[in-house]
Amino acid sequence: MLSYEEAGNVLDEIAEQLPEEIFENLNGGISFVEDSKKSTDGRYSLGTYFSDSMGRYIELYYGSFVELYGEMDDELFAQRLKNTLNHELTHHIENMAGDRSLERWDERQSELCGFNGIKVNSVLFVCDDNILSYIAEAVFNGNKADFCDNISAFSAGIKKAEKMPEKLMKLCRELDIELPEHEPTQISKELLAQYDVALCMTLNQADELSELYQELDERVMCLADEDIELPALSIGRKKCIKRLYDEVLAVIDELIMEDE
After folding, report:
1. CATH code of residue 244
2. Which residue would you say has higher pLDDT here, 193 or 73?
3. Could you tell me the residue range of the domain that residue 249 belongs to?
4. Residues 120 and 196 sit within 8 Å (Cβ to Cβ)
5. By CB distance 3.0 to 4.6 Å, which of 35, 83, 128, 180 could disulfide with 63?
């Protein structure tokens, strides 16, 4: 685990690598608070973006990172710091543009706290062709560390399980995503029944899966509040996979918080 001083240095290095324009009008800067902080529902808060009479500023809470990720190795701990800083900076950018997309995403995360009351010991990622869900499985298993080590994750396709295109495999390697060794799999009632929750990439996929297996529809959910779909052209695919990566990390964080 990184010490408070080491974590602060990591944040400084991350910030220095970002374009200066991102910090425009962030007049209160970024504060790295040594203590932890909890939200009104008693859950640890990693960071907060403020836009009030004091100006626009960000607070990150080292103590909360320690509570949630204190047993992670330094690399994963640093990755959580980076993801949280990027998340709060995105709030700033959207606030400047009058956009509430990320704010609504945060609200959704709060609403889905507890996965609708289901105790989650296993996760099935689902999409039409088992391509994005295959990547989601890889991200989950590659980042769950000791906190979620007992939670199994798998993936499936609703209509047809396609092999991963070589260009996507190369892109995953660039992003340090180690893909599963098993063959892509098509969904079945028996497979779905083995997992506590099924997280679909789009609302249509969730609706289709619920319609196919109505007796199991209570465990079918969407991974994100907006559809995650792979662009037909290469342009935008990297951004899509990075977004998928962040959404899966949010699932891991949710599961960690559920165990607190």
Report:
1. 3.40.50.2300
2. 193
3. 115-259
4. yes
5. 35
Alpha-carbon span 241 to 171, nearest angstrom: 9
Is the confidence at residue 230, as pLDDT, over 80?
Answer: yes
From 71, 94, 110, the end of a domain falls on: 110
Edge-first strand order for the sheet with 29-33 is 29-33, 55-61, 47-52
Q: What is the number of domains present in the chain?
A: 2
Contacts of 168 (CB under 8 A, 6+ apart): 131, 135, 237
CB 182 within 8 A of CB 209: no
Q: Taking the model in full, what pTM does it have?
A: 0.65
Q: What gap in Å lies between CA 104 and CA 76, rounded to an integer?
A: 27
- Residues 36, 124: one domain? no
Q: Which residues contact 161 (CB under 8 A, 6 or more apart)?
A: 129, 130, 183, 184, 185, 186
Confidence (pLDDT) at 112:
47
User: 82 and 132: one domain?
Assistant: no
